[in-house]
Amino acid sequence: MKRRATTATGLAAAALALILAQIIGTAAMQGLGLPIPGPVAGLVLLLGVLAVSGGIPAGLGRLADLLLRHLNLFFVPAGVGLMAHLALLARDGAALTVAIILSTLAGLVVAAAVFLWARNKSSGHAP
Amino acid sequence: MIALAWIIVTLVSYAAARALARRVNGHPLANPVLVASLPVIALMVATDTPHETYAEGGIWLLLLLGPATVALAIPLYRNWPKVRAAAGPLLLGIAAGSVTAVSVALISAWALGASIPSLLSLAPKSVTTPIAMGIAQVTAGLPSLAAAIVIVTGIVGAVLGPWLLNRLGIRDPEAHGVALGTAAHGIGTARAFQEGEETGTFSGVAMGLNGIVTALLLPWLLLWLFG
Known about the structure:
The structure holds two protein chains of two kinds.
Chain A: H1 2-32, H2 38-53, H3 58-69, H4 71-81, H5 86-122
Helix pairs in contact in A: 1-2, 1-3
Chain B: H1 2-23, H2 32-46, H3 51-63, H4 65-71, H5 73-78, H6 80-85, H7 87-111, H8 116-122, H9 129-138, H10 143-167, H11 173-195, H12 197-226
Main location (chain B): membrane
Transmembrane segments (chain B): 58-77, 89-112, 145-165, 205-226
Subcellular location (chain B): Membrane
């Protein structure tokens, strides 16, 4: 019973931490007039706090795993929201499709090639 | 009341899409967002429901996206030793892949006559959906179009990426991971974990770093280009 209570408190504290980080990040970016999404600023902030405190509280680890495992659920409204942009899709759909395929393959190959090149260079002698 | 009903429809549809994805071992084409959205749209069309009605309920799920984005810090922190060990090559590979993806996307879509709202929604295509939607929001793109583009990007990368890299003679597991995470975010990372733990971990790290760096830099570029 005690253990369950601690876990529930831990989860509530974790939820509070995530929401607070988002609010602080959003307020800071708006205050500074920076075009950076508030939640991303919150992510960087939380990463900094974890690095300083040197560990992940159990509740935070559990809540993050839960949220990230079901991340797809939060996008379904966005998928449905595409309905509102059918006219734009009819106009630009083909151009977007070509751009997506070309740029994704180019990005993949360049990322892999540059990573390998830099790793070989930094290790001095290839294995 | 009606908003609540649409949340339930969304949850049921999502649960079914997840079950299907598991049955086909997480094949990229069975992407749960894609699969879950279609029945909801079909039901809306059948019942003549306007999107505004759905959005009243859907906003509750979208609200969770902010805290979920912040939560991306946790896997990144867990893999920090790996990030530090390969920091230089990792950052160079991610930066090069990211710049390539953004510029090829913008130039080719622009050359094919895409409109400004489409270009703004296309630019954050290789970062994870919550971050891409956040970028679209601050640059006056269309968050839901950005989300759809991100998902298609992930599917293209996950389906064709490993095949293309192998054909080009790139078989190193870490390089596969960096490429998939940089160019195809979460969907690419799911594919990377099917190749192996090491590939998956590098992909997850690349996805996280690419998302952060892109969110910090891309809006400036877009404001300068289109502002």
